[in-house]
């Protein structure tokens, strides 16, 4: 399917446009995919005439919608002539390859991608680069060989540590826990899980916590709900679940909220305040974390412009202006941090609207 919407003003308007664009189905191209765009089309690369395309892990994910709202604002403010969003409806490893190839054909100047698999996208990204495109990874990194830089929400280890601190507090530092992740190949999820496992092994504060299972809801609401249900059946002594994905935590909360485990089995992880609000209010969830997703897309767009203009190459120490968010520096490994994360609970959740 092909979705198109016109340009937007302001981040909230962009988000609204993304949300309503599903109604504007203009033509069908099959393959379970969609594209959205704004502004004029352009294939040339002079500074005022550059194009940027965002390829998220999957469309149909409320988190992605917020990220892309920020991305479209950033693209406009940074001075791109047009911005597009294309991507698969599922987050499987190779689902993004055909979209990358299409952007190479079009001569898109900057591709911003959240990789469903660090290596499956590699050959296609190499071709895009050979044709002159700059590659910005965001949200979920590619293998570093295939991109110019990676815009990361928060340092990956810190994302892991926050979630462990939260679950430990919520289960009194003791008992069985499980992780309900997105897809088994997602770079960001796997890095966070690796740091959590290392910390559980090495930190004496967590000596009495046992990670008994890792399951994958594939960022699909129904599958995540079923995986949550399955965990409670398989592990009757389970004390807590960490879900480092907005889709997983919302589905798990929905399951717990009407089950006998509500208020007894703790749930934390990374969630959107707007999705989690009812579950915080009804006592299913005490506290969870996230950064501002719109900032991720916003910074990625400015990074793409600085690369396309030749102002930076993505080397450690490079700096660029990211509009209202100010100067950003490329750190070790070509990583630009956005942060900081916020913890949401009954006291502050009404202060946030994303
Ligand atoms: C999900 C996705 C995304 C992740 C967020 C927190 O929507 O898996 O990649 O960063 O949650």
UniProtKB/TrEMBL annotation:
Compartments (UniProt record): Cell envelope
Keywords of this entry: Signal
Main location (coarse class): other
InterPro entries in alphabetical order: Bact_Solute-Bind_Prot2, Peripla_BP_I, RhaS, SBP_2_dom
Domain Periplasmic binding protein residue range list: 52-310
Gene3D superfamilies attached to this UniProt entry: 3.40.50.2300
Keyword Cytoplasm (UniProt): no
Signal peptide boundaries: 1-33
Protein name: Rhamnose ABC transporter substrate-binding protein
Organism: Arthrobacter burdickii
């Amino acid at each position: 399917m092909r979705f198109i919407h016109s340009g937007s003003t302001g981040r909230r308007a962009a988000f609204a446009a993304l949300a309503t664009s599903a109604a504007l189905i203009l033509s069908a191209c099959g393959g379970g995919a969609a594209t959205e765009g704004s502004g004029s089309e352009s294939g040339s690369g002079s500074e005022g005439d550059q194009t940027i395309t965002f390829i998220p892990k999957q469309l149909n994910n409320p988190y992605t919608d917020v990220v892309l709202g920020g991305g479209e604002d950033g693209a406009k403010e940074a001075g791109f002539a047009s911005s597009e969003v294309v991507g698969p409806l599922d987050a499987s490893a190779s689902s993004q390859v055909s979209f990358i190839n299409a952007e190479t054909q079009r001569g898109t100047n900057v591709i911003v991608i959240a990789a469903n698999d660090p290596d499956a996208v590699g050959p296609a990204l190499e071709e895009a680069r050979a044709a002159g495109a700059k590659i910005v990874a965001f949200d979920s990194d590619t293998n570093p060989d295939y991109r110019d830089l990676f815009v990361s929400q928060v340092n990956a280890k810190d994302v892991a540590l926050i979630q462990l601190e939260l679950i430990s507090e919520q289960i009194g530092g003791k008992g069985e826990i499980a992780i309900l992740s997105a897809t088994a190949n997602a770079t960001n999820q796997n890095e966070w899980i690796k740091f959590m496992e290392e910390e559980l092994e090495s930190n004496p504060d967590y000596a009495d916590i046992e990670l008994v299972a890792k399951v994958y809801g594939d960022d699909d609401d129904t599958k995540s709900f079923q995986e949550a249900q399955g965990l409670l059946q398989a592990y009757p002594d389970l004390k807590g679940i960490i879900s480092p994905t907005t889709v997983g935590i919302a589905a798990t909360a929905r399951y717990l909220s009407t089950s006998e485990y509500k208020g007894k089995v703790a749930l934390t992880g990374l969630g959107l305040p707007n999705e989690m609000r009812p579950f915080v209010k009804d006592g299913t969830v005490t506290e969870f974390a996230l950064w501002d997703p719109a900032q991720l897309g916003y910074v990625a767009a400015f990074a793409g412009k600085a690369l396309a203009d030749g102002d930076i190459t993505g080397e450690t120490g490079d700096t660029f202006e990211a509009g209202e968010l100010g100067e950003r520096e490329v750190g070790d490994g070509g990583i630009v941090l956005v942060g900081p994360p916020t913890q949401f609970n009954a006291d502050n959740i009404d202060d946030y609207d994303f």
